Amino acid sequence: MRMRVPLLLLAAAALAIPALGNGPVTLVRGEGGAQLVLDPTLGTSWQDVNIGRLAVRTPEGQERLSPDVTGGPTAKSRALAVKSMPSADCVLIIADVGPGFEKGRPDAWQRITHATKIVSCGGGDGGGNTKLSTEEIEKRRHAGSLLMAKTGSRVEIQPLVNPATLRPGADLPVRAYCDGAARPGVEVAAIAPDGSRRYARTDAVGAAVLRIETAGRWRVEVPCSARSDSVDAPAMVATLVVDVLGDEAWSNLEAER
After folding, report:
1. 63 strand-pairing partners
2. What is the CATH classification number for the domain harbouring 113?
3. Helix (H), strand (E) at residue 167
4. CA of 220: how far to CAs of 21, 176, 200, 223, 255, in Å?
């Protein structure tokens, strides 16, 4: 995918920062635009963390997101304003971060502790029952190859079905990767919108199947232990965040049948 110039700047929070329970990095949408909010357990601002990779994949290509941390009040915010978020298309946000003391190392991009992938689609984000138009449904259908492709992060959860078309009651098969290799025998957790957890263990090819029971924001997590050849390598966690819409949102799809 082609690279474009950075279009992401730090901004003072136009949205209220919520109490976080949605992973290391949370995408928040509102009238003031979209923001990536950093969990306070990782740092008090984006300036405090080592950013291994921060990017957004769109149907047009992959865009590197570059925070402006040159100083001033906006450099001290946990909320990062996304200036170029498509309103209707599905996108994949990639946020690989680690502790701030790793910044400046030649291999800083590898020295991460959290690798987050956020699936975001226009038309009813957040798991509500906002009715999708026929056009929005088609865009979600065609986003499968974009959202299912591997990103190349050190730790990663790859969805094996199109996450943009998940509905309550569906299964979500995933594959877990650690340092580029599929990881068998690890426990994968699916965190429901109410905070409850379901678990599955990956098989011989690193795959597991999770049941998505309700509408809302689901978070899938898998741990990755440090590499055996690197004593100081930290443990890592891969996270996949998906907003699942309720059945009412898909009523136009039912009308096609």
Report:
1. 4, 56
2. 2.60.40.10
3. none
4. 13, 10, 11, 11, 31
pTM over cut 0.85 = no
Q: Where are the beta strands (DSSP E) in the chain?
A: 3-4, 8-10, 25-30, 33-38, 49-58, 61-64, 79-82, 91-99, 114-120, 155-159, 170-178, 181-182, 187-191, 197-201, 207-212, 216-224, 236-244
Identify residue 64 by its one-letter amino acid code.
R
d(CA 247, CA 130): 10
Number of domain units in the chain: 1
What's the CA dihedral at 46, 48, 54, 56 to 10 degrees?
-20
Which residue range(s) make up the domain with 21?
3-256
In this model, does residue 256 exceed pLDDT 70? no
Alpha helix locations (H) across the chain?
134-141, 144-148, 251-256
Higher pLDDT, 233 or 217: 217
Taking the C-alpha atoms of residue 240 and residue 25, their distance in angstroms, rounded to an integer, is 10
Distance between first and last Cα of the chain:
35
> Is the predicted pLDDT of residue 127 greater than 50, yes or no?
no
DSSP label at residue 144 = H
Q: How far apart are CA 219 and CA 157, in angstroms?
A: 11
CA distances from 57 to 60, 64, 121, 193, 229 (A): 8, 9, 12, 25, 32
The amino acid that residue 139 corresponds to is K
CA distance 7 to 26: 19
How far apart are alpha carbons 111 and 128 in whole angstroms?
A: 36
